[in-house]
Amino acid sequence: MSDPTQPPVEPTNSGPTNSNPAGASVPPAAPAYPSYPAAGTQPPAYGQAPAYGQNPATGQNPYGQQNPQDKYNVLSIISLVTSILAISIVGIITGHIALSQIKKTGEKGYGLALGGLIVGYLGFVVGILVLIGSIGLLVGIANSGVSEPY
Fold this sequence. Notes:
The protein has 150 residues and is mostly helical. It has helices spanning 74-84, 88-105, 110-142.
């Protein structure tokens, strides 16, 4: 009752769940999940969006996290802001502490700390000169011998 031109069929493969004849090549089923490119592979072609998240070849962390080396030192920012706001002593102190921390941790903000130190020292020198000038002016007025008009 079988066709003599067909190859013989094994009884174990002829069940109702398996309709493929023995020896026939069946391509494997596609996985249910998408395949992602390995790290360091080429980005997708122009016009195609990446499959998921950021491309690892760009060096960005997924989920919008910052890299540790992208962090700015907070004291360097405080140094620059306080120096600009004419609180020179605070700007100088925080600038020196920030430079020390940046050297140890490798954070960003070296330029901000250096700018805070420069502006802080300039503000401090100008403040000292204004103080000396105003004291000299007060002493000069006191010794001028100007009498009060009556």
